[in-house]
Amino acid sequence: MTTVRWIAAGLAAALLASCAAIQFSLPGVAQDGDGRHLPGKVVWHDLLTDTPEQTRAFYGELLGWEFEELPLGNTNYTLIRHRGRAIGGMVDQNRLPTTADVSQWVVVISVADVERAVAAVAAAGGAVITAPTSLGERGDIAVVADNQGAVMALLQTRDGDPPDPGEATTTGDFLWDELWSANPAAARDFYRAAVGYTTQERQLGSGGQQLDYHILSTGGRPRAGLRERPRVDIPPTWVSYLRVADAGQLDDILSRVEALGGRVLVPATDRPAGGRVALIAGPSGAGIALQTWSDSQTLAEAGP
Fold first, then answer.
1. What is the pTM (predicted TM-score) of this model?
2. Where along the chain do its domains lie?
3. Topology (CATH) of 174-301
């Protein structure tokens, strides 16, 4: 099986730190929020890519994403929109101070108080890569790694978080985020202490295909999943999932990936909890998952 480019945590963290250290103002992540903060929610996704033009074309053709350059002079940041809604951002890796290829997706998790959050990360055995840094309208951000090296960003938004959506999302929306861990029990304890997640364990699949799966929740709502990494050569990492309406649509998307410059890393397979899932990489090699999700399903059914 062709593998996605998994980045060593130390190298990825160094580059993310350089991004966070740039002093400029980014738009807030909530377009229609009510000012509330939803700690523990993944509120944003950023993509580091060494092929920005090809990446624009790839996701634009594949999922209808739109890319908007910010009117901030020489700022190395592009908004990603889907059906007019801002869903993430893109950074041109070629303009970062490195010659290494570190293309990857990065999850951004909401926290109520970023200073307290980074202190909790350190106390729980994680690493604080960058101290809290202001991004103007967006709020204050810090880059951290958990106790096994998985890198993420913590964001205290200035004007509140995106509200929890209704259960219906559209194809191409971010649906779910999952931590692939070398030691799920240790990771569970870390995220309980550092982020304040409550956890619920599930047994998915049957027979020899059983998988221990943990749902990470805050405010009574599922926020992310935690599972053992599927292969020992994959370092602990966060993986993001995009919603696809049904198996037919998933097959159509996968049939166009390679012609658009991407790769199908894992073909569509059945999920232990039902439905279908696949893993693809864009032109830069940054991996992302596609998961079928019907309008009748709820986030409480989330899983691998």
1. 0.90
2. 9-157, 174-301
3. 2,3-Dihydroxybiphenyl 1,2-Dioxygenase; domain 1 (3.10.180)
